[in-house]
Design brief:
The protein is mostly helical. It is 93% helix and 0% strand. Keywords: Coiled coil.
């Protein structure tokens, strides 16, 4: 009988340790999710404020054309 009590205690301690480890992993996963959401939010904000490359190329081309026409006609 004492052997079964010792075995039960050992199993209970093992389960308690496993529960504690699982709780720690869940807490870390929650923190990782929050960090990931924050980074995605910041990245979205950066992407909204940058100019797309085709638009920048079009503005540069129009500016070059305007300067060429101004120099040809104006001077």
């Amino acid at each position: 009988m004492p052997y079964l009590l010792c075995l039960r205690r050992s199993v209970d301690v093992g389960f308690a340790t496993t529960r504690g480890d699982l709780a720690l992993l869940l807490q870390r996963a929650d923190q990782t999710d929050k960090t990931l959401a924050d980074h995605e939010e910041r990245l979205d904000a950066l992407e909204r404020t940058r100019w797309p490359l085709p638009s920048l190329a079009a503005v540069t081309s129009c500016t070059a054309l305007a300067i060429t026409l101004w120099e040809t006609v104006g001077h």
